[in-house]
Design brief:
This protein has one domain. The chain contains ten helices and no strands. The radius of gyration is 19 Å and the shape is globular.
């Protein structure tokens, strides 16, 4: 509990997490509000309220990366490891704090977007949370934010430099996953297993034959995994990267 308190204090004692949380909340809900206001008058599908979740996800991942790279930048990580020589415990505590915060922020983003859509859209007949799929479309955002934060923590611990970690996260998510689809013959097969593409299926995809088709709204949802299988895949990748970072942090000099 002491380590958790220490990591919480360290996280909130800097301005960057506050700015990142504010940006994620305002950016995502703001875009959703614009979508709702300018909807063409037809019934607004529930998945349309969370199409902008990726903007907040990238901001949250930057915040998570900063939580560890900032310590390496200013050298405070050395004091932490001197106080807790096993090194793994403070890193795990940091992960618990950052992942929990990111998950709660994701839920605030999702339900804030949903609430704005119900308030601003002309027809809210399809915005009811009356099925398991409907709850997953909204509440699932927080789970993806949490897993994404864990992935970013792992990348940050491996790279140790803010610019490098942020570049890897954003370039992979925004460029690599899109460009890989243009590879002849095998591009589509590779793209459907890209982690952020799979994560989108968890949030936007429907169960067999149920719910609206996200592709009609401009969302890319591909792959053969079920929605919950998609989340397990994304979370599994995040966990592998994070565990690898623990091994590296344990073995190398701070």
């Amino acid at each position: 509990m002491t380590l958790l308190a220490v990591e919480r204090i360290k996280l909130f004692s800097t301005r960057s997490p506050w700015w990142c949380m504010l940006l994620a909340l305002v950016l995502t809900t703001g875009i959703t509000a614009i979508i709702a206001i300018n909807w063409d008058g037809t019934p607004m599908p529930l998945v349309a309220t969370v199409l902008s979740h990726t903007f907040g996800l990238y901001v949250v991942m930057v915040m998570a990366a900063l939580a560890v790279t900032t310590e390496y930048r200013f050298g405070t990580i050395k004091s932490t490891f001197q106080a807790v020589p096993d090194r793994v415990s403070p890193m795990v505590a940091k992960a618990v704090v950052v992942v929990l915060l990111s998950t709660l922020l994701g839920e605030a983003v999702a339900f804030g977007s949903w609430g704005l859509s119900r308030l601003l859209a002309e027809d809210t007949s399809q915005l009811a949370l009356n099925s398991a799929d409907a709850w997953r479309h909204v509440a699932g955002v927080g789970l993806v934010y949490g897993a994404g934060a864990l992935l970013a923590l792992g990348v940050g611990a491996l790279v140790r430099q803010t610019a490098g970690a942020v570049s890897i996260i954003l370039v992979f998510a925004l460029v690599v996953e899109s460009v890989v689809g243009f590879i002849p013959n095998i591009g589509d097969d590779i793209q459907e297993w890209m982690p952020f593409t799979v994560a989108s299926k968890f949030i936007l995809g429907g169960s067999e034959g149920s719910g609206p088709d996200p592709s009609e709204l401009g969302a890319t949802v591909v792959g053969e995994l079920s929605p919950w299988g998609s989340f397990a895949y994304f979370a599994g990748i995040a966990l592998v990267v994070y565990v690898l970072s623990l091994v590296v942090v344990k073995r190398r000099d701070a």
